[in-house]
Amino acid sequence: MTTPFITSAVLEDWQVWMPENVETFKNESQLPLSTFVYSLEEAAAKANKPELGWLVGTSCNYLSRGVLGKVAMQSRTLGMGLHWLCRFYPLIQDATLMKLEVNEDIARLSYKILDPQIWPREQDALYTLSIFANFLKSVSPDIFSHVRIGIEAPKTPKNSELHQYLHAPITYSSNANEIIFPAKFLSRALPKNRETSQTEIAELSKIYSSKNRSMAFMDRAKYLIYRGLIETDISQDFVAKELCLSTRTLRRKLSAEGKSYQNLLDDCRMNLASCELTLAKSVSLAQMALKLGYSEHSTFSRAFLRWFGVSPRTYRRIMTGEVPSI
Questions:
Q1: Quick count: other Cβ atoms within 10 Å of Cβ 33?
Q2: Which of 32, 193, 259, 303 has a CA-to-CA distance to 127 between 20 and 30 Å?
Q3: What CATH architecture does domain 5-187 belong to?
């Protein structure tokens, strides 16, 4: 998989805190996403501030994100602004799932880096959620009295007091990083609202299409599989549809790369399983099997044994230090 990137505009928010090794990217248009994420973890650890990502995000000026920032922040309503932000977020950051879901009277704005090998990433999650929180607060200062927050990171002694900074109840070890709030706020007007320019939307669409075409086919397919596994809705038909291909053409293109759909699916399952078993200690093996698309726990265990040479239970104990590695 090729290296995912993030726009270097984000470095403006982190000038005071960013380690020196990232300074070299200031004059570049983008930097590796993993470099950015790991640098945030380093900065928070060095400052001894587990809440650092959230604090930095509160002062972010999203208008500095170019056309997308303007379209999102100057939309008529919060709902429209978040719609454009979700749709064009890949222009800011690769390998990322950002989604707004509305279920009756509840809205859920979620964010997740799709590459499971980019970890830990708690500060990136807090930074991004804080920026989203700014959007919400701009339409109603008291909205956070109705908000719940979820973060992927497990609860630890260091981050157990985050609620004091986020001013909202937190669910740890969540499936994604998310802000859950009443859907009624989506119709509230943004403070800098104006008529969305069709010229700007056309410009964003053109850049987005160009970026998609330039992305390696195998990377696009893998990210779609990761997304499907996260949403527990993965199938060959789903991947083909998202790529605007027939399943036959999908198989042919994968074959040309020396892969089958099953090979690719197993690769993604293997990467996710490895990370989940190391980090999600509270998730049972049966839950993990279901999350990875296996209907039977035993089928998942056999596949895992084939991948790693040990059972999932033994692998988890090794990675958490309960037993020595073999």
A1: 21
A2: 193
A3: Alpha-Beta Complex (3.90)
